[in-house]
Design brief:
The chain is of the alpha/beta class. It is about 45% helix and about 20% strand. It has helices spanning about 10-20, 30-45, 65-75, 95-105, 115-125; strands at about 1-5, 25-30, 50-55, 85-90, 110.
């Protein structure tokens, strides 16, 4: 599995990386611009991300805007919903407006921090990935 973690907080990045490293190749982006650049580069090499964990509150470009840009790029590339990256939005904010905005932008999942391994892996399994318990 090819995974991108887009998270501005070092500790959160480290925790997610530790949790996801056993599932495949993990790339890290520290802000929204880096995240979108990573996604574009992955498409250019015909190796798009299977899973993206995308923080909502990030510097430069927030996660909702990055999500919208990724979905636009996927449409431009002719991908159907089944072949698009699975995107889990992560946030310290559980306000309904953030959940609604993420859903409207076509995210696949939503997790409120702190994120423990069991909840993360349950969410990944719900997206159709066959991963260990």
């Amino acid at each position: 599995m090819k995974i991108l973690i887009a998270e501005d907080d070092f500790v959160s990045r480290k925790i997610l990386n530790t949790q996801l490293a056993s599932l495949g190749e993990v790339d890290i982006a520290a802000n929204g611009n880096e995240a979108f650049t990573a996604v574009k580069m992955a498409f250019e090499t015909n190796q798009p991300y299977d899973l993206i964990c995308l923080d909502i509150m990030m510097p430069e470009v927030d996660g909702i805007m990055v999500l919208k840009k990724i979905r636009q790029l996927e449409v431009q590339k002719g991908l159907n919903p089944e072949t698009r990256s699975k995107i889990i939005m992560t946030t310290a904010l559980s306000e309904k407006s953030h959940v609604l905005a993420a859903a409207q932008a076509n995210c696949n999942g939503f997790l409120v921090k702190p994120i423990d391994r069991a909840r993360l892996f349950d969410e990944i399994r719900k997206l159709g990935f066959d991963i260990p318990e």
